[in-house]
Amino acid sequence: MSVKLTEEMLSALPDARGHFGAFGGRFVSETLMDSLMTLEKEYLQLKQDPEFQAKFDKDLADYVGRPSPLYFAERLTRETGGAQIWLKREDLNHTGAHKVNNTIGQALLAAFLGKKRIIAETGAGQHGVATATVCARLGLECHVFMGAEDVQRQSLNVFRMKLLGAEVHAVQSGTRTLKDAMNDAMRDWVTNVDDTFYIIGTVAGPHPYPMLVRDFQSVIGREIRSQAMDKVGKLPDALVACVGGGSNAIGMFHPFLADENVELYGVEAGGLGIASGQHAAPLCAGRPGVLHGNRTYLMEDENGQIAGTHSVSAGLDYPGVGPEHAWLKDIGRANYVSVTDEEALDGFRKLTRVEGIMPALETAHAVAYGVKLAAEMDKDQMLVINISGRGDKDIHTIANLDGIEI
Amino acid sequence: MSRIEAVLKTLKGQGRKALIPYITAGDPHPDVTVELMHTLVEAGADIIELGVPFSDPMADGPVIQLACERALKHGTSLRQVLGMVKTFRETDARTPVVLMGYLNPMEAMGYEAFADAAVDSGVDGILTVDLPPEEADDVAPLFTQRKLDAIFLLAPTTTDDRIRAISEHSSGYVYYVSFKGVTGAARINVDEVASKVAHIHEMTALPVGVGFGIRDAETAAAVGRVSDGVIVGSVLVDTIARNQADTAELKRALTDLLHPMREALDSLAS
Question: Which residues of chain B neighbour A191 with C-beta distances below 8 Å?
Fold first, then answer.
C-alpha cells in the first residue's frame, strides 16, 4: 500500500533523533555520541548557510563537472522496444562515480569543523577514491579502510588511492568485506575522535549521516527533474538505481518522493539468486535489525548474527541498507527488486556494446533491471537509469570471469 | 534491592572496591564458560560481566573480536548464553551477572522474550554497548519492570547534561569507559580518569565502575583508588586465547591474573 507523501511530511524526516519511521536512529557507543550530536548541529546550521551552499555548488560545477548529462539511449531504447530509456551519467563525474558528490560535501563540513584527519570505509573502492581525491585537493590526511577481499578484487582502485596519497588499511576481520571495513573505520573514529572526521560513503550509519549524505547526493535527482522538463517536457515515469547502501538511489529518488506518478525502483544484488541465500539483498530478503549505528533491514541469521553476503560487485556486497530505503519499502513508496550476478553481467555487456558506455558492476544491476522494466512499458513513457559509476575498475573481474588474463 | 546494588553496598560498607571481570560467553568453548565463571568468583570476582558474542563488535579491539569469532564458530547464541547463566546460578546464588553485548541479538530474540528469559536465568543487569539511552525508550522499561539493572556507558566525551541524563536511566552502576578507543588498547591515563570519575560522582549517587585499559594489579589499584570498581576484560580474554587447549591451565592462568588484582584492591581498604 502506498502513502501519498507531501513536501511537508518529507521535510520533517528524519525526525530530531534521526528516525525515518521505525528506522534510522543513533545506535553507537557513548564515546561517539557527542561528536555525532555536534556534527548534526553544525550541519543543520551550514545547510542554511548560503556561503556553504555556494561553495558546495561551485565545487560540484568546476571540480566534479556537474551537471552530469541526462542522455537519451536511443539504440538501447530501439533494441528494447518499450519505454524511452534515458541515462543519468554520474559515471562522467570526476573520479568516475556519484560518490564524489558526497565526499565534496563532507570534506567541506570537515573543513568547517576544523578536522585535519579523514577516515573512510570503502567496498568497491569508489568511495575510497573519491575521499582520497578530495583529501589530496584539500591537503588532508586520509585513511581508507577496505576489506582484505575487496583489496584483492579491486586492486586498481587501491592503487589509485595510494597514488592520491591515502593510506589503505586492509581489514582482515570478519568476512573481510565492506561491513568489516565499516567496523574498523568506527574503531578508528572512536580512538581518534578529537581530530578525525569520518566520511561515510553511503546513506547508512548513525544519524546524521543518512540525512547529510542524502542531501549531498540529491543533486542527482534535482538535475534529472530539470533536465527531463527541458528535454522531454515532463517528469519521468520510472527511475531505476542500484542499491547497496543506497546513496545513488536516494540521491535520485529523494527529489521525486512527493511525485506519486514517478515510480521508483531500487535494484539489490541478487548474487546467485535469492533462493540460494548467496546474495546481498536485505530489502528483498532480510528483516529489521540494528547494525552500524542504525535500525534497518539486515541480512542476519535467526540469532541476530550478521550473515555473510555475496555479490559479483564489491560495492553492493553489504548486509544492510540505508534506513530511508527501509522506510520507503515499508510505506510502499519505492519498489525494491533484485537481479542476479549473471543478469548484471549481461547488463554490463549490453550497455557496453549497444551504447558504448561501460558501467560499473554495481550500476550494471540497475541497467539489467531497467531494460527489463522498459520492455514492459509503453513507448511514450520515460524511464531513467542512474549510471552511478563507470566500469573501468571492474575490467579485471570481467576478464577473470571470461577466463582472460590481462 | 537488586543483587548488584546489594553487593556494591556491602563492599562500600567495608571500604572495598569491586572487581568485575569480563569474559566472552562461549569462548573458547560453550562447555567451559560456566566453569570459568566459577573460577572468576573463586579468584575474587564480585560481579561477572558475561559477553554475548556478536559478529560485528564495533566497540571492541582485536582481542575481544577474536573471542566473538571463537564463540560464534561453536554457534554460541544469546539463548545459549542465558542457559549458561542459569546453570551458573544452580551453584552460585550470590554473584551478580551482567550480560554485556550488542543490541541486534536481543532485537532478533525479541526484547520482551529476552527480558523474561534473562530474569528466569538469574541475570542481574544488561549492558548494551550500542544502545544509548536516547534509543532505549522501548527497551529499558522492559528491564526495569523486571528489576533487571540497566547499565549504561559514560565516556570521556560525555557532556555534563548527558552524564545526568544517562545516570537517571541507569541502575546498579554506571560504566565509565576510561579512554577514547576500543577495548584492549593500553592508553589509560589515571589522572584523567580520577578527575572525570570525581566529576561523575558529583552528579550521581550511583557507583561508578571503570573499564578499558586495566590489565594488572597496578592499574587495578590506581583506578580502584578513584572509583567504586574496576572492570577487567581484554587481558583475561587474551589469557583465554593463549590457553584454549588446556582448561586446567587456563583456570590457573585466570586465577594468577585476578588474584593479585583482588589483593591490590583490598589493600586500598580504609
Answer: 180-182, 185
